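#help-structures
NK: newbie question, is this the right format to request a structure? protein is TonB-dependent receptor
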Amino acid sequence: MIHRLNRAALLLGCAALSFPAMAETVESAEDSVDYGDREIEVRGDVLYSDQINSVKTPTPVIDVPQSVSIVTQEQIIQQGFDSIADIVLYTPGVTNSQGEGHRDAVVFRGVRSTADFFVDGVRDDVQYYRSLYNLEQVEILRGPNALLFGRGGTGGVLNRVTKKGVIGEQFVGYLGSVDTFGAFTGQVDLNFATSDTSALRINAAYEELNNHRDFFDGERIGLNPTFRAELGPATIIDLSYEFIDHERFIDRGIPATEAGLPAEQFDRITFGDPIDNFTTLEAHVFRGTIQHAFSDNFKGNVTASYGDYDKVYSNLFPVGFDEAANEVALDGYIDTTQRENFIVTGNLIGEFQTGTIGHTILLGGEFIDTVNNNDRFNSFFDQTQDDVEFFTPSRPLSIRGGVGINSSGEATVNDFSQLNDDTEADVTVFSLYIQDEIELTEWLNVVLGARFDSFDITVDNIETFIDTGVRDVATRVDEEISPRVGLILKPQENISIYGSYSESFLPRSGEQFADINPPDDALDPDTFENLELGLKWDFRDALSFTAAIFRIEQSSPQVADDDPGTLDIIDSEIEGVELQLQGNITDRWFFTAGYSYLDGNQVDAFGVEGNRVRELPEHMLSLWSTYQVTERFGLGGGFTFQDDSFADNANTVTLPDYIRFDAAAYYDVSDRLRLQVNIENLFDEDYFPNAHIADNITVGAPLNARFTVTGRF
């Protein structure tokens, strides 16, 4: 504990609390959509390119032919969100997956992803839990997004927009919170005007982690200095560095009963080793962007990013429960990842007329160079001489540091000594894309575009070399074209009716470049097609309604039911409806509600429907509302409902439906200080929100509260 506090003190010093103040929160309640690598801001109901870029005449949000959900900094504060998973709970058409207890894992319209994450439009595909301390907002774009984001993006993407230096201002923001589990957070947000045309902004955070589960602890440290400078009236640069240091216990939940339901009788038991279940991540990420306006109608930008990531995760987890014998089977492994990502992307944006027809052309390119080293060692128990051992469910489980007593009463020892795989992957991606937003008339717009990707991967299987002394190197090049077509009808200024078609792809190496061993190396990339029809209606100045009907045909890797260390390729078809109402009903009353209906089945080679797609609730409904009772006092409340779903491809284990109520109250002591309390699971509902496989079922948190102080001076 002492070394943790010392490290935190080095980062935070005396200012151990942070968050931007209420004043800045109101100002930055402007939303944004990252349109490819162009930073797009949403002010009111209009999409603008970054103010320095000023790339084109504003495009109304209601004219974008795609489903987009935006969570602003103000919503993050008021709802007490501290993770990507919290945000996803209140987003229609999107759910969480467990992520094996060591990473964000989002299910976009039935498509599970651990790699479709971006920071300011730059790919962020390493598996870890992402912090919210340095964000202006989070944007979730649904449907295949290959034209703007490249490979993946099959059901959607999630983009985090970070805070940038504010020229001409000096302020200190802070946030401090503690919850009833004992977790606490401190954040600081400092902005310095270094000259009339430049600013330095420093965001830092320290989190001590805790929750309702035995053994759970950990810490997160984040430090993100950024520098912004105007090099002239038409040029701006942004430079940033982020240091990430995460450590936490891995909890993969509880097993299922033979009846195919969560084993609720074990919801207080953690099926893991308090010493050998952990994950650590240290990362150093550098980003730089230069933006230049060549003229009022011709702009450009270039972004370069380099990230160095070193991650370890180690775990034991349940893989089966024998009710008659009252014993749970535990499997396990330790996995390391070392990854270096170098990404350069550039865009040219031009606006012009051909006769009476208006055009906004986006021409861009991207280069990615990734070096990825992975190895995995399976558990090995001396009694079974295998990677699986059997234990009697108890609290605590009878194993610690690899030494324990099995269900037969025998002493057993585990070591992670069995090499499962060891690979080195080199990935080179080159992309070109073009898109034209065409204004044919005042009531009809068309969007046409296509992207070419060349994906070159070489995988060196070190395990084979260790076993045989023979090099096992596989190379594959995939070249794909991903089209996008959109049609927008405008019966009146505040109503938009759109239709769109888009495609995306995922190479056979998967999201994390696992392998391209035979027979996978002979197969084409997984492909995804999306057809979407939608309505957007701004029926009041600050209140909007959106609706979308969509269909996705996909072929994607899924965790195998009988072996969680391998993937099966699953073809499926998913249809759905998404509805969202968001905005201010009055000056004092903010309201957001979302609903989705999802229906999807696996299909065989002949198109015959089979099992329902895993982690696909038929109905989801969420609502959140805040009301400013007085000038200083406000209340918030809402709920999230999730229908039942299956935890596995075989549809043998069901996650029951649940509804969880949350509430908040806040009081502005002054313009510089706010006190706030957030209550989660107000009625203490027992629920199991997600899973990774059939016997890795997450146990939802009971009634708990978080007390927060925020402000700015």
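mod (FA): yep, format's fine, and the tokens are attached above. Confidence is low (pLDDT under 50) at residues 1-58.
NK: thank you!
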